[in-house]
Amino acid sequence: MxxxxxxxxxxxxxxxxxxxxxxxxWYASLAKPPFNPPNWVFxxxxxxxxxxxxxxxWRTWERERAGAAMKIWAxxxxxxxxWSPTFFGAKQMGPALVVILALLASIALFMVxx
Length: 114
Hints:
The chain is globular and about 45 Å long. The chain has helices spanning 3-20, 24-29, 42-63, 68-89, 93-113.
């Protein structure tokens, strides 16, 4: 699998999920801390993050396609894609926190395994 396919999978999936779960008025009405970044930062930041996630997946695929690291990478991608529908779509902050903590754990485990 090429890097281009990983980029299409990760960026395409993120884009589709992002458009399906736009933050909207509910998010705008939430009380946010003063260090919350301005809205315009999110699109370039997530684009860069998704490119880096795709590169990490592609490099892992090139090393060991069926190994533990590839399975953990896939898990973190699923969790990453699940967060926006949970938080923005379902407006469920508690379950979204569980998803983000599981994502953090899977990223840490990925770094250890790699």
